[in-house]
Predict the structure.
Amino acid sequence: MHSIKKYLALSLLILSLPNFAQEKGNENEVSVERPLNEPFRPQFHFTPAANWMNDPNGMVYYEGEYHLFYQHHPQSNIWGPMHWGHAISTDMIHWEHQPIALFPDKHGTIFSGSTVADIHNTSGLGTAETPPLVAIFTYHDVKAEKEGKLDFQTQGIAYSTDRGRTWSKYEGNPVLKNPGIRDFRDPKVSWYGDKEGNGKWIMTLAVKDKISFYSSPNLIDWQHESDFNPAWGAYGGVWECPDLFELPTSDGGSKWVLLVSINPGAPNGGSGTQYFVGDFNGKDFNADGDQVKWLDYGADNYAGVTWSNISQSDGRRLFIGWMSNWTYANTVPTEAWRSATTLPRSLELITHEGDNILASRPVEELGKLRISSETMEGNDLSLPDELAEIELGISEENFELVLSNSHGNRIIIGKNEKGIYLDRGQSGLTEFNEEFKAPHKAPDLGLQYKKLKLFIDRSSIEVFFNDGELVMSEVVFPNSPYTRLETQGFENAVTVHRLKSIW
């Protein structure tokens, strides 16, 4: 059933990192050829060529290319000293692995952050003719942490003047020192102003159990503006990986959206991403209402952020997340690599009963994956391939579908009077973590459910109700591909698209 036939030549950088402090240029670089075709290796989701990956970082679109950086440990398949891995795509679907972009140095390892296109060269790190890409990231000083200090996380910058191929650290790092707080990290930076360069940079920073906003004219000198931590927010764990952006509303206006990832404290356990909708004036963010909202009710969409510098002609707010959960991320049954990203999504505000809800819609570029399409009739169907996109019409208020295989593995998805549910307790390999087996639930949000779309890869399923008005993303590890689909409460016709590997 495995369709991959191409081999990817890439460089795996083997490092010796005493005190986690080694600069690029001193590494022992080893070229390795390997097929990206191991058991459970996703075939249309991005994965690192080898070893550990977590948070997507520094996503920026520049001169026709989508850059994806990510938290990466190049020596192990479990979390360790963080680097920024790197990949480039022209469509967010097909990716080319790049050499590691950012290495640990004397200030620490390289935690999460963001990248911007400094078009007006406000930083002075490029020129008017060759403006720089500037990465803003968290330094994590392991030695200082072990010594019991509180200020072991600071913010640094690096820049590139060759379209993101090579990176130089700013000599004056760190550009934002720590005031004495253990969790002071994950800067998401964006431009607040006009296209002519009138305005300022805004940094949205996770600070323990709040979001702090900073501003800068040049990405180097930062000033604290305000803090956001409403009493009614979700505080089950540390706040991480924020994002702030503006979206149009259905009434012709606009609202600001603030994403905040939290671990633990998600609605189905472990890590997840809450969001707030409100107003931002360049200094303060004020949320509408007092209800916690969640971007994804599945267990496996965490630390996601959006691409910067998307062209106005495109107009979308494009998002990708880490498809795992800290509850079991280090123990899932893969060896050559660990973790994948979610499918890319376009975030949109929709109005429901006077409230703004953030929808996550699969990007249209995913249509490039389709090999063939077939409409089938019935409520007990055989699936033609392990890689599939399935579209169903919902005909009844309550409904249920079961995906299964010859090994007795199954996933159950449905809705009853209590809301939406997804059960992966018998989906395949589950012994690696007891909490992995727990059934997952989502409120129905009062929506009228008419459509359901499933994307099935070798080790994941992403469930989009009404094209993303409610989403559940889940990793699974079946003993063999799911080849049977049984349904109740759905229309008789089911469309199945066979998908191809991106590798």
Summary: The two ends are 15 Å apart (CA to CA). Residues 142-146 form the longest helix (5 residues).
